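Please fill in the sequence for the structure shown.

STRUCTURE ENCODING:
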């Protein structure tokens, strides 16, 4: 399985050495999710105001060079599909990348489509631009399938004629390489194994209450692929975090859960340190205080 390769190459700040990410800690309402797949998305003024407040807080926090945020990650199915253009405009204006799970949209053939939006800003001379990439979820979870089917909706992945297999994307943006997974996709060994030795980090946007099961998968994936994993979940279930391919006591340098307000935590990820470690052989890796040795077979 070969991932499609999206490359954004323009006059942008180069992130070869480090990237500062923000993990959004926001609640995902099952009422909102249901309203969207029933064709009645809830797009109230108060809900939009809360989203704008969070985006403004992110911009204010990153207004200084030393705390500038490069990429913000949201949970799965957390905003109406029709508001994706708001995130794209915001990303273009402030030159901050955004990865956000969109609520289901239902097409004319009654397929419930779960998509994730990756908005990658860049500059062309003095002009601010943004590339929005919408990718359909390749693997719906059993619970998601059960709920949708019992609401008389169809699942795209079950109709290969109307919906060919949704391929994974490898993003190369501002000198950083990464992949984006939509929740249940990360549980598939084949889906995540294709990026071994090809990414600095993986983003996982999720709406998942089975924290224990998914935690084991995320921690295993971080060490198996030897990369960082940025995970954003519904705030009430929690376990939104950054996972590092390090020993257990250093594996979760950022972790957040709970609260009533929409907020975020930030962390600077040192890409250069990870790459420098990966270039070494086992003899020099085994005594590292920062990272575990790379797995067998990793190029």
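FILLED IN BY: designer on duty
SEQUENCE:
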């Amino acid at each position: 399985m070969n991932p499609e390769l999206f490359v954004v190459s323009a006059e942008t700040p180069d992130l070869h050495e480090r990237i500062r990410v923000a993990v959004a800690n926001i609640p995902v309402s099952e009422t909102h999710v249901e309203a969207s797949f029933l064709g009645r998305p809830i797009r109230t003024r108060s809900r939009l105001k809360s989203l704008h407040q969070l985006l403004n807080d992110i911009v204010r926090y990153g207004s200084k060079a030393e705390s500038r945020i490069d990429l913000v990650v949201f949970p799965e199915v957390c905003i109406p599909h029709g508001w994706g253009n708001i995130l794209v405009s915001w990303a273009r204006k402030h030159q901050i990348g955004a990865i956000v799970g969109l609520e289901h949209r239902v097409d004319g053939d009654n397929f419930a489509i779960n998509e994730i939006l990756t908005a990658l800003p860049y500059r062309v001379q003095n002009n601010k631009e943004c590339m929005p990439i919408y990718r359909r979820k390749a693997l719906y979870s059993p619970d998601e399938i059960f709920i949708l089917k019992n609401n008389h909706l169809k699942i795209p992945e079950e109709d290969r004629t109307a919906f060919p297999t949704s391929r994974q994307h490898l993003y190369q943006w501002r000198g950083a390489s990464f992949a984006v997974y939509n929740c249940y996709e990360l549980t598939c060994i084949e889906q995540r194994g294709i990026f071994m030795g090809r990414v600095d980090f993986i983003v996982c946007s999720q709406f998942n209450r089975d924290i224990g099961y998914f935690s084991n998968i995320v921690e295993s994936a971080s060490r198996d692929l030897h990369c960082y994993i940025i995970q954003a979940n519904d705030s009430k279930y929690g376990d939104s975090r950054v996972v590092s391919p390090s020993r257990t006591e250093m594996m979760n340098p950022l972790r957040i859960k709970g609260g009533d307000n929409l907020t975020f935590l930030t962390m600077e990820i040192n890409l250069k340190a990870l790459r420098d470690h990966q270039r070494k052989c086992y003899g020099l890796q085994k005594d590292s205080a920062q990272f575990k040795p790379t797995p067998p077979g990793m190029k």
